[in-house]
Write a structure and sequence with these properties.
By secondary structure, the chain is mainly alpha-helical. It folds into 2 domains: 7-105, no CATH class; 107-144, no CATH class. The protein has helices at 20-31, 51-59, 63-72, 78-89, 94-105, 114-124, 134-141, 146-149; strands spanning 13-14, 17-18. A two-stranded antiparallel ribbon has the order 1-2. The two termini are 24 Å apart.
């Protein structure tokens, strides 16, 4: 996939959690007609196991409700949107956020997502890259190098 302006790395944190900011970006880009068609199949919570689905489940917030809130409050900060999710679904502890971050950041590394990760790497011609996880794959596929920047540490 090409670099998509305005779509951040899945490693990027909002507050204490990874991925949430990327999901917000996808919602906003989709609403403005700037989200590439290749991303539409993974937008929202229709598919079990997909990252948007998992994130909404972690936040105990239906994707449709989050999407509506994001679009109804275009000037809200990402942190305010996360606080809105916590207000409705319950605040998560530091330990829960740590577990979430590590689970998501290591998805595809020695788990049931590994076959899909290998497939996507091959389809994208990225076999020469040091990809260990789905987050790594997403970043390399979109033109970022998470290994050089040690994205998982930020």
């Amino acid at each position: 996939m090409p670099h998509v302006p305005g779509l951040r790395s899945p490693y990027a944190k909002v507050g204490r959690i990874v991925y949430f900011g990327r999901m917000l970006d996808k919602i906003r880009l989709h609403a403005s007609g700037r989200l590439p068609a290749d991303y539409l199949a993974n937008l929202g919570d229709a598919k079990p196991g997909m990252f948007d689905t998992r994130c909404c489940s972690f936040l105990r917030t239906p994707f449709a409700a989050l999407q509506a809130h994001v679009l109804a409050h275009p000037t809200a900060t990402d942190e305010a949107l996360l606080d809105w999710c916590f207000a409705g679904g319950g605040t998560r502890t530091d330990e829960e956020c740590l577990i979430w971050n590590h689970f998501m950041g290591k998805r595809g590394w020695r788990d049931d997502a590994l076959p899909r990760l290998r497939q996507r790497i091959a389809e994208s011609g990225l076999e020469s890259q040091p990809i260990m996880t789905m987050f790594d794959y997403i970043d390399f596929d979109e033109g970022r190098d998470p290994v050089a920047t040690r994205a998982w540490e930020t």
